[in-house]
Specification:
Elements lengths: L6 E3 L5 E3 L2 E2 H8 L3 E5 H19 L3 E6 L6 H9 L3 E4 L2 H9 L7 E3 L6 H10 L3 E4 L2 H13 L4 E8 L21 E2 L4 H11 L3 E7 L10 H21 L5 E3 L17 H19 L5 E4 L3 H4 L3 E13 L3 E6 L8 H5 L5 E3 L9 E6 L8 E8 L7 E5 L20 E5 L2 E6 L4 H4 L6
Parallel strand pairs: 4-20, 5-6, 5-13, 6-7, 7-8, 8-9, 9-10, 9-11, 11-12, 12-13, 15-17
Antiparallel strand pairs: 1-2, 2-3, 4-14, 14-15, 14-19, 16-19, 17-18, 20-21
Bound molecules: ligand LLP.
Length: about 425
């Protein structure tokens, strides 16, 4: 009925997440409020696990791309569910370290890691640094040498595959700031250089073609291109690289019309390409990694707001203003992202009111969405925006010195704070006079 399995309607007609009434959650924790179903996050992780068993005989692993939503509790869940972790900054690494996430299952990404970040990664013993470019390779080799260590590395390769998604979240094409290009020979040059260096150990290759991708074809194409490159590397250098990381980017349902291909179709089709190409090229099947972020946490989250002003401009539109906005969800402003919203108290009733859901910031573009259909809403109602578990909290800001909402994790009939609400005191806590 809803875009996510963790949502339902109880006997009172209220929206529920797991077994919790969202109106009670809004009452207990206040609004705006991010709520996430721990059950759904764990189930999403388990789907990846089961799928690796089925399609690769367990010879692979899903890394949770923590940029989608990074906090201690979620890193802990990913750890407990046997996922690896993709981090892209000292901050994400620090979060992982703070809960003792196993270093060998961490992959450190980023197109411009600082020397300090590389030192941190080596100090913690991060299993794999996904090197973006040759400059980073040289710097890393020197840092590792000075620390008496050898860094396990992969290269991020641009496979030259164009995924059909929003321009801002497309990354596989040659004109991208991420990775080394195949077409120009840069990728082969990087591999050859790594083979000469003594403080890096190249274990595999990585690619990531973009995010919120519904179609499987570009993933298949990327896998094909990468395997052919693995074969070329073996021919040219004699190195048989044992790991292939195919990145993340699996689309999820934000609105009922969205029709992502689904994990099973993705894993079935991509593993067929991997097995087929390896057979054809005489390559051993590499250890396959993928890096889902959105598809682990996206549909597990909702945001609850309280409606304030309702402003109808006759013949134009109705603005329904809520107590959050672009500070907790900048995705409409950035990508014209679409969401489903409903009035929590009347979640099953007909949606007869067309609104522009506006935030509270001093910015005309501060909208959660336009032309959204809702159950009739009035000031004081709680509105739920669905599928906000990925890239909402993680991209939130303090614009207008609006404190970030808390994140509450729900599991069955239990709830707990995973990230506390920021206070006004927090807003001035870094200021000096
Ligand atoms: N691996 C790499 C190297 C990535 O750059 C990303 C996402 C992922 C994995 C995870 O992708 P996912 O499975 O979550 O699609 N802020 C944007 C999304 C940016 C994605 C950046 N990289 C949004 O709100 O849609």
């Amino acid at each position: 009925m809803f875009v996510s399995d963790c949502l339902g309607i109880n006997a009172k007609g209220h929206l529920t997440i797991d077994e919790k009434d969202t109106l009670e959650l809004a009452g207990e924790y206040g609004t705006p409020l991010y709520v996430m179903s721990e059950t759904q996050i764990r189930e999403n992780c388990r789907k990846f696990r089961r799928s690796f068993e089925e399609h690769y005989g367990g010879n692979g692993m899903a890394l949770y791309a923590s940029k989608a939503f990074c906090c201690k509790a979620v890193c802990r869940i990913a750890q407990e569910e046997g996922m690896g972790l993709d981090v892209v900054s000292a901050g994400e690494l620090y979060t992982a370290e703070s809960i003792g996430f196993p270093a060998e299952r961490i992959y450190f990404h980023g197109n411009n890691k600082t020397p300090e970040e590389l030192v941190e990664a080596l100090r913690y013993g991060v299993g794999t640094i996904v090197v973006d470019n040759i400059t980073e390779l040289e710097v890393l080799d020197q840092i590792a040498a000075s620390m008496g260590k050898t860094a396990g590395i992969m290269f991020r390769v641009k496979p030259g595959v164009d995924a059909h998604t929003h321009d801002f979240i497309r990354t596989g094409q040659i004109d991208s700031k991420f990775g080394v290009a195949l077409e120009t020979g840069e990728a082969m040059e990087a591999v050859c250089r790594a083979a000469e260096l003594s403080h890096v150990r190249l274990t595999g290759l990585h690619c990531h073609i973009g995010s919120q991708i519904f179609d499987i074809d570009p993933f298949e194409e990327a896998a094909r291109v990468m395997l052919r490159f693995l074969a070329e590397v073996r021919e040219r250098t004699g190195l048989t690289l044992s790991k292939l990381n195919l990145g993340g980017g699996f689309g999820i349902k934000y609105v009922p019309e969205n029709d992502p291909a689904g994990l099973e179709t993705y894993m079935g089709r991509v593993s067929a390409v991997v097995h087929g190409e390896c057979g054809r090229l005489g390559l051993p099947i590499p250890f396959i990694l993928i890096e889902p972020g959105r598809s682990v946490v996206g549909d597990a989250g909702i945001t609850l707001y309280r409606v304030g002003a309702v402003k109808t401009i006759p013949g134009v539109r109705t603005y329904l203003s809520v107590d959050g906005g672009m500070t907790d969800n900048p995705r409409y402003a950035l990508y014209q992202a679409r969401y489903e919203a409903l009035v929590a108290a009347r979640a099953g009733e007909a949606k007869t009111m067309e609104v522009t859901l506006a935030g509270r910031c001093c910015e005309s573009g501060d909208l959660i969405g336009e032309n959204m259909l809702l159950q009739p809403a009035a000031p004081g109602d709680v509105v739920a925006v669905l599928s906000t578990g990925a890239y909402n909290y993680s991209m939130a800001s303090n614009y207008n010195r609006v404190p970030r909402p808390p994140v509450v994790l729900v599991k069955g009939a239990e709830s707990r704070v995973a990230v506390r609400r920021e206070t006004l005191e927090d807003m001035i806590s870094h200021d000096e006079l």
